[in-house]
Design goal:
mainly alpha, 2 domains, 2 strands, 71% helix, transmembrane
């Protein structure tokens, strides 16, 4: 028991050593609940959900996502250390219990931040139900984060898998969709927790009831994740090393090496393709059959037109999928190469060649994600100007991918992923959604996705292109972020060369033999009194004799 408390305490202290992690764990749920609660309630009413009851569930959703990511990175980054502890004699059940306990403490922390914001923002009819539901949300996702951390080695894959589970669970769950469609998401992790939290009886929970099945999910998530963690602590493999490449040739070689690294990770490409397909296709299934009024520019005139929502919803959701995955791809390309790039520059690699190869890797990831999104969008959404729509989607993906690179060069994994999740969602899913408001607020022009999203709406819903301003804003964002990434990359890979420094073996070879050494006390003007040191003592003895 003493070992358990010592390990749990050390794990918490290790996590808290990075103040950015703690700051993000507070700010993200606060911003999510504060900004997203009302728009998501409006979206729920539009899609046939419970409306105002959704505001209560936003605290649980925010706490769940943060708890899952925090638990994933905690278990993944400490995998080697945990194996060494197990080999050193620490019992695996004690290690697993300490890891899970650390995740639960973080879950309580983020739940408190989300609930505090919820209570300050609005009047909650049943505070105890909201508190219990939020804690159950976070606990289930602690188990999900631990399970993904035990099974998925690559942080990009792990993050995307958690994001996919969370998106399917939240956006296609019983709170945001019509109760008649709950059979589609009955097997989602927080299906029964959501129904109990918003006081919407499911009618299909059997003898245990919604609350009983919610507790079954909580217990099962912790048990399964504990078993997977225990198995992961007893097995592991060494990561592969990489070699350095040449300028025209160096750029090509660095780009090929980057793609080769990703080719070794087929799960990443599967996720980049399947996640947008599932996300966009599911948005079509849950859309309520009704008309929606959206403000567009047609032949230079601003008009409020009516659109059939099942035909347009998929087209407005595709940019969210592309932006989110592009941000994550750019983030991890920068994170994974951050330490190695400095060593490559020190070894003689051209900095510009290396940076160009990183931009090339990002472009490939954006093109793959965009192609997958457009393939399914073309089946569900009749865009009016397909050429402009495709160009706008690529522009949006590049803007957010380069934004992700900025995060990767400046932040660590946990903080970067959390911000990479929040910004696209608040930008495209909340602030600029044409289903929630006729036009975005004036401050939305400062967001990265404003320009490209204006282009996409114009190309998707009208027959003439009238968004030159949006196109220029998007290009300005892409060029500006490219300059920022270049400056950060240059600063991080700058190598200070000291002319006087020599390797240890050279210093040892050039060092004088012991018989040739001169005692510094004998040097004139040294300021050391005569007779100090071993040589001085010999001189004094000889003089006395």
């Amino acid at each position: 028991m003493t070992a358990y408390f010592v390990l749990a305490r050390r794990f918490l202290l290790e996590y808290g050593r990075n103040p950015v992690n703690l700051l993000v764990l507070i700010l993200v749920p606060v911003v999510f609940v504060l900004v997203a609660a009302k728009p998501m309630a409006d979206a729920a009413e539009l899609l046939g959900g419970r409306g105002l009851a959704v505001e209560t569930a936003t605290a649980g959703w925010a706490a769940a996502f943060l708890a899952a990511l925090a638990m994933y990175f905690q278990t993944r980054q400490a995998h080697s250390a945990d194996r060494r502890l197990a080999l050193g004699g620490v019992r695996v059940p004690v290690l697993v219990a300490a890891r899970v306990s650390t995740g639960l403490v973080i879950a309580v922390f983020v739940s408190a931040a989300a609930l505090s914001t919820l209570f300050l923002r609005s009047n909650v009819d049943d505070p105890l139900r909201a508190i219990a539901g939020t804690l159950m949300f976070a606990t289930v996702y602690v188990g999900i984060g631990a399970a993904v951390g035990a099974l998925v080695r690559d942080p990009v894959n792990g993050t995307v898998i958690i994001l996919l589970i969370w998106i399917l669970d939240v956006f296609f769950g019983p709170a945001l969709t019509s109760p008649s469609r709950v059979e589609l998401t009955r097997w989602m992790p927080t299906h029964f927790i959501t129904l109990w939290m918003v006081d919407l009886p499911s009618g299909h929970s059997g003898l245990l009831g919604d609350l009983g099945l919610a507790w079954v999910w909580v217990a099962a998530s912790l048990l399964v994740s504990a078993l997977l963690l225990a198995g992961a602590m007893r097995a592991g493999r060494r990561p592969h090393s990489q070699r350095r490449p040449g300028w025209a040739r160096q750029t090509n070689m660095a780009f090929r090496m980057g793609l080769r690294q990703y080719r070794r990770n087929p799960a990443l490409w599967i996720l980049l393709i399947t996640v947008p397909i599932i996300f966009i296709w599911m948005s079509k299934l849950i859309t309520k059959e009704q008309y929606s009024v959206m403000r567009v520019i047609e032949n230079g005139k601003v008009v409020d037109a009516r659109f059939w929502l099942p035909d347009t919803h998929a087209g407005t959701m595709a940019p969210i999928a592309v932006a989110s995955l592009s941000t994550v791809a750019g983030l991890f390309i920068a994170l994974n190469a951050r330490a190695g790039d400095r060593r490559l520059v020190l070894a003689g690699q051209h900095r510009s060649a290396l940076l160009a190869s990183r931009f090339g890797e990002v472009a490939v990831a954006v093109l793959v994600t965009t192609a997958a999104s457009l393939a399914v969008t073309a089946l569900l959404f009749p865009a009016k100007q397909w050429g402009v729509f495709i160009a706008g989607m690529v522009l949006l993906g590049m803007v957010y991918a380069i934004f992700g690179m900025c995060l990767g060069f400046l932040l660590d994994r946990v903080s970067g992923v959390l911000i990479a999740f929040v910004v696209p969602f608040l930008d495209l899913g909340i602030t600029q959604s044409p289903m929630l408001r006729l036009e975005p607020p004036a401050a939305a022009v400062l967001l990265p996705g404003y320009g490209p999203y204006r282009v996409l709406l114009d190309a998707g819903l009208t027959k003439t292109f009238d968004e030159t301003r949006g196109l220029l804003i998007g290009l300005a964002w892409m060029l500006g972020l490219t300059v920022v990434v270049s400056l950060i990359f240059t600063a991080r890979t700058r190598v200070e060369r000291h002319g006087g420094a020599q390797p240890r073996h050279v210093r040892a070879r050039n060092a004088p033999h012991a018989s040739e050494r001169v005692d510094p006390v004998l040097l004139p003007g040294s300021g050391v009194p005569d007779g100090v040191g071993p040589t001085g003592r010999l001189q004094r003895r000889a003089r006395d004799e």
